[in-house]
Hints:
Helix content: over 70%
Number of strands: 2
Mean pLDDT: 93
Oligomer: single chain
Low-confidence stretches: none
Number of domains: 1
Shape: globular
Strand order of the largest sheet: 1-2
Order of helices and strands: HHHHHHHHHHEEH
Structural class: mainly alpha
Radius of gyration: 20 Å
Strand content: 5-15%
Amino acid sequence: MSITIIAAAWGLDALLGDPEMLPHPVKAMGRLIRTLENTTRKRIANKKVAGIMTGISVPLAAFCITAAVVEMAGWIDPRLRAVISILLIYTCLSTRCLGQEAQGILNSIKAGDSITARSRVARIVGRDTHDLDEQGIARATIESVSENTVDGIISPLLYAFLGGAPLAMAYKAISTLDSMVGYKDERYREFGWFSARLDDAANFIPARLCLIIIPLASFMVCSGRAFKTIKTMLRDGTKHPSPNAGFPESGFAGALGIKLGGASTYNGVTLHKPFLGSSEKDVEAGDIKKSIRLMWCTSIVALVFFSCCSLLVTYFLKACMLAG
């Protein structure tokens, strides 16, 4: 995929974010997921099999439909193909949206409005938020920003470079499936099992690329804490219950000099997650602002990193062809 197209899509996301008045493919994916869930549950007795059918069908449909739209646009005009690709990849990225959500929480804390701050945190985390104090709000926000740096930035960029708009949209479908059915409650424990595992697999490599990308970003925005960031990620990256979330979370913890993890409550049940990072200082509201800056820099570094890798692969293939 052209670096120019992906860079343009990244620029659109940085400039516009996710305007609520514009149609978004995720809404269509959500409707498809609900339709397929209802259909497969009725027709297939085994919940796991029903979930597997849904989990395969949605990303496959997203890939095929996107590929068809892009191809048909190319038949009309190559420039239209580029424009459509830019717009579709743009909808898969969420740098600005993630930053705006975190900034809104910080603004509420600064205004002394803890009720609104907790309400806004509840939009981006799955834990109970009604009893969180300021430190708990800040910790939950930073954990969400760091984890979603993979889901909303690094992964879609990687898949856009690997397979253009179709593969990026297929990844978005996988992520949407996980957010809708990838739960461990009674309703989705079996039905959502495949979608959750598929999301883990899709984010496996992107999460580990954080070992390169986040330290580079931390060197630029966190007083050159690249070595501390790498050390923390290597030590704590695999401690998280999620196979992927520990790498970005420990990276942000190391870069900011804070400790993430610990006790969190989900539907009234308190879970104790391993601590990530070191308590160089207590987590505070100001760390949210730092995490937003780190997230933006990580997004830029990821774009440049994947662009450089793409150029290297292109030159290598050309050299091989000439040598042959």
